[in-house]
């Protein structure tokens, strides 16, 4: 038994000091969807998909970075929470290229998976599309920033073999973009090694390995609603 | 942070260093950013990330006069787009560019705190508010 008791979806549960709402929920078998969160890394709080309702809080709170407190009353799947999660996914989809049908990552795309789970249909509108040229000069990584949802996983996770960080976030608002160097394409002679870290963490098809079609393919054959 | 700390170059106060160079050189040359990144032992993409976030830091050499039109919501609702289009027609280059004769750089910026006079713009450090397409030509005339 832990030392902090709280109420989650009507049930009394407990967790240990310093745990986040998300961690306690997962420990108790409650599935809160996440996109930017990675278990091993410091929470970034970028995607907001993990929001939950906490009684007494004016706004929804991000469960991946909010520590639990004694007596908290939390709703993880209330109508309000689900509505917000759906809108978030819809917004991401509204600025995403319509290339799912030919996308390498389609069968293991977390964005698509979340959209299916949350029963988000076609976006009702389009936001300004973000188109960037494909970066495919490097023999270890292909970057298609048009598909990037700015979760920042690759930014946080990348330390290449020389201990150097490859990516950073630049610009602002609609123009925000994960950049390399002085916003240059990852060139052929770059320090990027084939560690695969960022590629395996990217939730969408924005980062991938240069594999030819018909070769080794990642993930299940077809994504089925999970 | 003590005054001494503020003058010591660290990634935490990188903005001060960037502003200093912006003031002196007029923009942030690539070589400068690379050097700064090296001396702070951070990737240059981090430095560029900060530099590109702020509308008042330039990463390309600016023209003699810098036009900054607000693109934030209040100005947008007051039809700031028409002003942007008018300027574009008037000087012949799109936002983010400098005219070939170097007379104007054309930038869009986030809110400049002049919402009460929306749509608003700055040229160099001068404020121009309550803009209409008709006013643009005569305003631009003042800047050679
Ligand atoms: S490239 Fe992928 S991992 Fe990196 S921020 Fe974009 S979506 Fe996230
Ligand atoms: S998972 Fe919590 S904000 Fe993205
Ligand atoms: S929104 Fe344009 S000045 Fe504030």
Can you describe this structure?
The complex is a heterodimer of chains A (226) and B (144). Chain A is α+β, with helices and mostly antiparallel strands and 226 residues long. Chain A has two domains: 3-77, Ubiquitin-like (UB roll), CATH 3.10.20; 88-208, Alpha-Beta Plaits (2-Layer Sandwich), CATH 3.30.70.20. In chain A, 18% of the residues lie in helices and 14% in strands. In chain A, the strands form three sheets. In chain A, strands 2-1-5-3-4 form a five-stranded mixed beta sheet, with helices on both faces. Chain A has a two-stranded antiparallel ribbon with strand order 6-9. In chain A, a hairpin with a 2-residue loop joins strand 1 (4-8) and strand 2. By secondary structure, chain B is α+β, with helices and mostly antiparallel strands. Chain B has two domains: 3-53; 65-141, Glutaredoxin (3-Layer(aba) Sandwich), CATH 3.40.30. In chain B, strands 2-1-3-4 form a four-stranded mixed beta sheet, with helices on one face. Chains A and B meet through strand 7 of A and helix 3 and helix 4 of B. Bound molecules: iron/sulfur cluster and FE2/S2 (inorganic) cluster (2 copies). Residues 148-154, 178, 201-204, 206-207 of chain A line the site of iron/sulfur cluster. The site of one FE2/S2 (inorganic) cluster (FES) has 12 residues of chain A, from loops.
